[in-house]
Amino acid sequence: MTWNLEFLPEARKDLRNLDGSQRQRVIKAIDKTLKNPLPRSEGGYGIELGHKGGANLTGCLEIKLRGEGLRAIYKLIRTETEMLVIIIGVREDEEVYDKADDRLKIYGL
């Protein structure tokens, strides 16, 4: 199955704001995940999220770039085989989860 890749406008900006080497590593991780973005429980690469620090991210998945200290959160739009990147941010704090929750609410996802 081929998945289409989309970004929220804010996530595209998140990507542009990374330095060049980080941006390349995130793109490579997203490209790899796009080949099988399903949750690990279904044999894919995605790490399922639920409630994180008060943010409801149920239905979202995560890509961790441990070496870079970054994470990308995405949601699969299964009716259209679309992978939507919600946010790309620093792994150290819970702020990325709160921002992802806010963006999900803004876009009604």
- Specify the CATH homologous superfamily: RelE-like
Number of DSSP strands?
A: 7
User: How are the strands of the largest sheet arranged?
Assistant: 1-7-6-5-2
The CATH architecture classification is 2-Layer Sandwich
From the alpha carbons, calculate the radius of gyration and give it in angstroms.
13 Å
Helix content: 25-40%
CATH class, please?
Alpha Beta
Supply the number of structural domains.
1
CATH T-level fold name? YaeB-like fold
Q: Which segments are poorly predicted (pLDDT under 50) over 5 or more consecutive residues? A: none
Distance between the termini: 23 Å
Residue share in β-strands: 25-35%
Global mean pLDDT: 93
Topology order in helix (H) and strand (E) letters: EHHEEEEEEH
Largest sheet: 5 strands, mixed
Shape: globular
Number of helices: 3
Q: Which structural class should the secondary elements be placed in? A: alpha+beta
Keyphrases for this structure?
109 residues; alpha+beta; YaeB-like fold; 5-stranded mixed β-sheet; two-stranded antiparallel sheet; 3 helices; 7 strands; 30% strand; globular
Outline the structure in words:
It is a single chain. The protein has 109 residues and is α+β, with helices and mostly antiparallel strands. It has a single domain (4-106), classed as RelE-like (YaeB-like fold, 2-Layer Sandwich), CATH 3.30.2310.20. The protein is 34% helix and 30% strand. The protein has 3 helices and 7 strands; from the N terminus they run βααββββββα. It has helices at 9-17, 20-35, 95-106; strands at residues 4-7, 47-48, 51-52, 55-56, 60-65, 70-77, 82-90. The strands form 2 sheets. Strands 1-7-6-5-2 form a 5-stranded mixed beta sheet. β5 and β6 form a beta hairpin. The model has no long low-confidence stretch (mean pLDDT 93).
